[in-house]
């Protein structure tokens, strides 16, 4: 069996990646510092400076990603002076100018988030996971993230109408069509682009729930492929990648999180921790 590598570097991802060759990684998945947030723990970039700060790093990501690879960017715009700042929208537009295709947007719904109310808004319970690619021919392994059909099938498929038994094509000309009867006797279904992993609080103030990188790693890579997390924090992506038999590189600028990552990488997670069904609302 090939040896799986889990490398971790201390430094600014901009500088560390500069010495990497082109077209190495199959997947880049990361959660960079959000503008201004957690300035006391790992520095914060001012919302108005965010795009300028991010772009040279994204240029390196573009260079080191394979043409068949995918870049998943977990990010959320903060509220500044009573309205949502536009840096995520501006960044998306600038990334397109850099050559990235903005292929898809996934929603991470934080299903266990505590309730709250502010004078002019409610609790923020979701974040974006933006998908970017270098080409339209990226690798995607959809069968790897299928989920059990669930209870809806028992009720919805019990009594089929005549329309349910033929291909029903969208009237708006989108090309979308469905034949509900195709779902009879199936046990597994394709998921949606809304994911519901519960947040966790493990040793770092903004870690990924392991199910989140696991889902994207399964969807966009195969065993022995290479995964990069350039803002690796506690090293969750590397830990998960290792457990799924993918090679990984993590880059972290803060020495204490770098040390924490090294410890975590010595303790891979068990596969059961991130089964696909944990990502669904009723789980
Ligand atoms: C939101 S956290 C990532 C948490 C990570 N997803 C996890 O599960 O542990 C962002 C991390 O990026 C690190 N960071 C900030 N600027 C960086 C840079 N220029 N290069 C590398 N790491 C950086 C921060 O110290 C922080 O630990």
Automatic annotation (TrEMBL):
The keyword Cell membrane does not apply. InterPro entries: DNA_methylase_N4/N6 (IPR002941), MeTrfase_CN4_CS (IPR017985), RM_Methyltransferase (IPR001091), SAM-dependent_MTases_sf (IPR029063). It comes from the Bacteria. GO terms for molecular function: DNA binding; N-methyltransferase activity; site-specific DNA-methyltransferase (cytosine-N4-specific) activity. Its EC number is 2.1.1.-. It catalyses: a 2'-deoxycytidine in DNA + S-adenosyl-L-methionine = an N(4)-methyl-2'-deoxycytidine in DNA + S-adenosyl-L-homocysteine + H(+). This is Methyltransferase. It comes from Thioploca ingrica. The lineage of its organism: Bacteria, Pseudomonadati, Pseudomonadota, Gammaproteobacteria, Thiotrichales.
């Amino acid at each position: 069996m090939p040896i799986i590598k889990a490398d971790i570097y201390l430094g600014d991802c901009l500088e560390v990646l500069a010495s990497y060759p082109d077209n190495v990684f199959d997947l880049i998945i990361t959660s960079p510092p959000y503008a201004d947030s957690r300035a006391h723990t790992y520095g914060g970039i001012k919302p108005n400076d965010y795009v300028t700060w991010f772009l040279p790093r994204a240029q390196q990501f573009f260079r080191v990603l394979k043409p068949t690879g995918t870049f998943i960017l977990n990010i959320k715009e903060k509220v500044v002076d009573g309205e949502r700042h536009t840096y995520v929208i501006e960044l998306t537009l600038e990334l397109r100018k850099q050559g990235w295709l903005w292929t898809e947007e996934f929603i991470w719904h934080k299903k266990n988030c505590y309730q709250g109310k502010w004078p002019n808004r409610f609790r923020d319970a979701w974040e974006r996971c933006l998908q970017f690619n270098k080409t339209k021919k990226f690798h995607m392994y959809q069968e790897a993230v299928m989920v059990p059909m669930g209870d809806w099938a028992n009720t919805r498929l019990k009594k089929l109408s005549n329309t349910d038994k033929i291909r029903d094509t969208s009237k708006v000309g989108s090309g979308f069509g469905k034949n509900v009867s195709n779902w009879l006797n199936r046990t597994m279904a394709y998921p949606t682009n809304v994911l519901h992993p519960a947040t966790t609080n493990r040793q770092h103030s903004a870690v990924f729930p392991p199910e989140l990188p696991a889902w994207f790693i399964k969807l966009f890579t195969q065993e022995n492929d290479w995964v990069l997390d350039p803002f690796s924090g506690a090293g969750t992506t590397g830990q998960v990648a290792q457990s799924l038999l993918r090679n990984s590189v993590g880059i972290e600028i803060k020495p204490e999180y770098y040390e924490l990552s090294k410890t975590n990488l010595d303790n891979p997670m068990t596969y059961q921790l991130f089964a696909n069904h944990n990502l669904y609302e009723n789980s």
